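[Automated response] Your request has been received and processed.

Submitted sequence:
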Amino acid sequence: MSIEKVGVIGGGTMGAGIAQLISHNGIPVVLKEVEQKFLDRGLATIRKVYEGRVAKKRMTEQELEERMKLITPTTEYGPLAEADLVIEAVPEILKIKQEIFEALDKTCTEQTILATNTSALSISGLAAQTGRPDRVIGMHFFYPAHIMKLVEVIPGLQTSDETVEAVTGLAEGLRKMPIRVQECPGFLVNRLLMPYLNEAVLCLEEGAGTIEEIDAAMRSEGWPMGPFTLIDALGLDICAEAGKVLWEGYGDRMRPAKLWEQLLKQKRLGRKNGKGFYDYTGSDPKTPGKPDPGVAEAVQAAGVTPSGRKFDPQRLMLLVINEAVLALQEKISSPSEIEIGVLAGLGYPASKGGLLHAADRIGIDAVVEGLDRFTKELGFRFHPAYRLRTMQKAGQLGEKTKRGFFSH
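Generated structure:
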């Protein structure tokens, strides 16, 4: 099935970014919003991206206008009727998304694929709002959509292979890197990212290290930015909500740190309102702020007894490696797709190969030993995945035995 016309519902940051990406690749796109003022804002966002390309001499003014003409703005569902694919990109509020899918099912042709850009909600649950569950799929872009290469393609329980192939083909045509991810809470990237970020917050609330110390330590491990800088960039409210979804899906091994609630009570949202783990008020938006002294008040209010432990970056590294292995043994994605997700979605440096490559480099026996140690000290959330113990028993220890998750 070829996709020659696309609809996007939602003209916010993600929706506008997706619409710009599609129009930039010469595909007509219908952009729907609930009110004209939101449409105007979305179109302005798209134009700004194109103007940036013009300023860098990557396109001409004429090409800019040609791309903008490919976008049909609307506040009605009618113009979406003939789209081959409609991508919903509205806030993560289940009721709103359910209403949209019900409306799309009534409006669009039987052949239209309905996709959601949700980062956490059930694809199968949204499909149940329609009479075409075989044509409902997750198509999760990453922010900013016109730059980030990764797209998670998530089939629901009844999604057809034809639908998966069509959406994967479109993503490739948009010059993205699609990976197939089986439906689970958080899908792949957020399932790995949120426990990593939560563990950093747990370390802070128990006094194992300062904001700057923890951020610096994880940068030294190869991450492009520290966990607190990343949380501030994503938004504390967004991260906290995603954490709740994982807690609901996986139980107490994903229990959020108490500090999240205290920080949100202080209305700390990160860069978007100038106050998060760092204080950005009065600073250049492109430069990092200074650690905010007010965070200490939130730590005290969380009421966690200081542990006396010193921060160990392996605490975060081994936790996220273990989660990657759990996803692998559950067949959420293949080893290569997990590594693509880590590199293109989390920004882990390509020179290090990804988390499974990191496990092979550390040594599977050392990973198990470290996880067992952290399990005794910190609890069952560090309990090693059985795939790791099986590999250890089989002598598949990674680079030192020439065989681990990959051949070396």
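Summary generated for your ticket: The chain has a mean pLDDT of 94. The radius of gyration is 22 Å.
If you did not submit this request, please reply to this message.
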